[in-house]
Structure formats: structure tokens, C-alpha cells
Amino acid sequence: MRQNIPFIYKLIVGAFLCLCMFVGAMVFGAADITVKDVWLALTTAATDKNFTIIREIRLPREVAAIFVGMALSVAGAIMQGITRNPLADPGLLGLTAGATAANAITLAFIPSANFFAIMIACFIGAGVGSLLVFGIGATKKGGFSPLRIVLAGTAVSLFLYAVSDGVGIYFKTSKDVTMWTAGGLIGTSWGQLQMIVPFIIIGIIIALLLSRQLTILSLSEEVAIGLGQKITYIKIILFIVIILLAGVSVALVGNMAFIGLMVPHIARAIVGRDYRYIIPFSAFVGATFMLFADTLGRTINAPYETPVVAIGAILGLPFFLLIVRKGDKNFS
Hints:
This protein is mostly helical. Helix content is 76%, strand content 0%. The protein is built from 14 helices and no strands. It has helices at residues 7-27, 35-43, 49-83, 95-109, 115-137, 146-170, 174-182, 190-209, 211-219, 221-226, 231-253, 259-271, 275-299, 308-326. The longest helix is centred in the N-terminal third of the chain and has 35 residues, at 49-83. The protein is globular.
């Protein structure tokens, strides 16, 4: 089926489903809001209680859901392509744990740090986390096997989360640290979006520009070298993109696992193994999934919220186990 339907049609369907989910996310919630309210709030300057909720609370939150879903999904796709590892995911390979630890340290030592400083700290933490994982994974001969990388990622992530908890307890910032560790979009502001959205857009554009090279890398490094690809240079740029996308995501919503694992597999099953198609399609699927998870978290126990990270884990863990069971038979 995926050979018979042109990619552009699949992309249009993906974008349409994302738009429908966005409308649903704007309508459903604790407040009684209709589609008409959403339309009027976005197209007129009229003031009303519901319009204020839409413009200042729900709209920035769902815009954040779209961009964070895109960022994590694209980061996961790039990681899977570079490592040729079907279990690669920013949340499983130490990036989000490193960013969370850096965030906890920043809150403890620089309590007055603004969102931009926290975002920079998350970049650094994500980089340190990934270096630890790949450093441990490379200590034995035989390259980066999927099992070794996942085990190293699990060990490093547990260590870094312990660091986060320890710092929070010692410096009495546990409440703030727990908010990020739990993950969520509550309280997202337009000011925060102005800082993170440009980074996410830049990261995705770079990923798209290097998608052809990523496709070749995902097949074999020997083939890439034979075709004249500068694989070291490409890998460095793509790892920077991964750190950029994971860092801003954690800075905004905290630890979000499994999205970067699931979505690229879904995209690969629909559009094939060419990363020129996987990356843009993953962006739309990831945005749709994040909107769905956030809407579910706001509605299943309204007016209270269920953490989005819990929704993601419930949906993602069975998917993870399925991939482990299947191995990489359908990946390479």
C-alpha cells in the first residue's frame, strides 16, 4: 500500500489529522468551550471568559504540544537512523534524563534563573547524558549494539534521575524538580514559546536538509563512505540537532519518554525507510500524538490533570515491548 499512494497524499492526510486533533484539543477540557468559541477567539478581538481561556491558556498549551511532539519525534527518528537502533529514543538514551538533571542543578544553584537559562542548561545536560551513554556503550569491542546502548541508557538515566532527586531534596527544590520530572504542558506561556519554537524549527529544517544523508547512513556507514559522504561531519551536526530538540522539549515539558521511540516506527511503516519522508511525516504524527495525550490527560479526570508523561508511558510501553520482541527485523 505504501508504494501505491504518493507521499504527498500521506503527508496531507497526516496534516489534516493533526489539524483535527488540534481543534479537538482546543474544545475539550474542564471548561465548556465550543468550536464556535474557538473560531471567534482566534478571529476576533472580542473579550469573554472563554475567549481568555482559549487565547491565554489553551492555545499556547496546544501550540507547545504540537512543537514538542514534532521535536521529540524528529529527534527519535534521527537517533534511530544514525545508530541503526530500533530502540533509540531521547528518553531511553540519557538525553532527557541529562536535561532533567541539569534543570534540577540550575534550580538549586541559580534559583532566579529565567526560562532561557534553564533551556541552555537543558541543552548542556542533554549533551552530557548522551555522551555518557555512548561512552559506556563504546567501552567494549563490537560497536553500538542495540542491547548495549539500551542498557547503558537505562543505567545512565537512573543515575541522572537520582541526581535530580538528590539535588531537589538537599536544596529543598523537590517540588519544582518533580514538576519537570512528571512532564506536562500546564502553565505554558507565549513568552516560553517565543524562545523554544525558533530552536525547534531550526532543528527540524536542518534535519530535513540532511535527510538524504541520514537515509544513506541508516543503511550502512561503508555505503555512505563509498558515496563520498562526510559521515563524521554529518553525525556531529545531527547529534547537535538531537540535543537541541531534546533539550528545548525537556526545558518546556519535562521528561517525555517513548514518543521519540514510537512515532518514527509508525512513520516508517506508512512511508517507507527514506528519511526524506520519515522526518516530515514523523513531525505530524508526533504533534498529533502529543495533542491527543494532552487532551486525554486534561479530560479523563477533569478538572484534575493526569500527567502527560503517564499517558505516554501507558501507550508507549507496550509498543516498546513489541519492538523488543520483534527485534530489528523490519528496521534494516
